[in-house]
Amino acid sequence: MISGTRHEHKLAVIGLGYVGLPLAVEFGKKYDVMGFDVNEARIAALQAGHDATLEVSDAELLEAKKLRYSSNADDLKAANIFIVTVPTPIDASKRPDLTPLIRASETVGAVLKRGDIVIYESTVYPGATEEDCVPVLERVSGLTFNTDFFCGYSPERINPGDKEHRLTTIKKVTAGSTPEVANTVDGLYASIVTAGTHKAPSIRVAEAAKVIENTQRDLNIALVNELAIIFNKMGLDTEAVLQAAGTKWNFLPFRPGLVGGHCIGVDPYYLTHKAEAMGYHPQVILAGRRINDGMGAYVAGQLVRAMIQRAINVHDARVLIMGLAFKENCPDLRNTRVVDVVAELEAFGIVVDVYDPWINPSEAQQEYGISLCKLPKAGVYDGVVIAVPHDEFRAMGVDALNAFGKPTHVLYDLKSVFDADQTDLRL
Q: How much is the pTM?
């Protein structure tokens, strides 16, 4: 028997990051919710009414009247539906790292009761929920899957920094380990997602759907990145070409750039890992990954060549990188590929300063060993790279950005923020 009717649902959300917190807040408007995270500082900040990720405003936190926070796993015992929203990163060898997922499953397993449902939102390869997570739940709880407890899957679709496409306005894919559970999971999400839900026929289908969403986007960006490399060799402005091609109704509006973040630069490796484990070696997907993973080095090489052409001594030159976040108007630096540009420039003997008003300096230091500079000084840089198009940088204007450079310098507008005739380089 599945525990609880709609009005008896007592939820626990495990992991209160970019995905878990917005979910906990929305559910906390209707249901009793325990928001759990092992980061005690994170819990303290949320209890004080502030979300450092800026995904949820202070006012929105106050609206979740039934949401409580804790870093004590014992506080999860009252829940009968557990929603796991922990990260699923890759390791240094680009292999899936399920460590956070397994640890979260162990935490849930320790408090799991008969009739409970465990829903996973973390991005995984098809089969991970039932093949990797369920055995952990069974081992720790001593209960039997689909007899004593049940599972669901509803992949997250959070887009950090996006204030238009929010949790409630993005259609939610749902799935359950039995038809009855699938209906329960679907009804649960339908109660908060105004855009509606799509009930997949199985957990594996829902897992596969999620992982190909970002794989498709990754490949499309890889295509335009490769086109940018080709057009640069031809002396063509890539943005001008894409604008011309974009006049056709079915031309997809992708743009070249660095591909980082917790999804697009990671998810394809989950799919290729599973494919290789089954004896198939993906070609197209990994080709796209190689192109996108190499763009940091390509950007640095472009800048160095432009500096040499202007007779700027590269060794001990100073370059200012504007932006470290993986995308604009967002304090998220997970898997940011700006660090590739920094590393490549430093390999040339260039002194690199990084400026990003959106990023917590201690986080940049802890994650990447990068000491962010305060507002840059004028007239000291041989190169200025607009790596992340934050609104603050757009508002500065070209003249202010050029003012950071020496009389002879290179301004590289990586994301074509300004017109081609206003900058020295565009991707």
A: 0.92
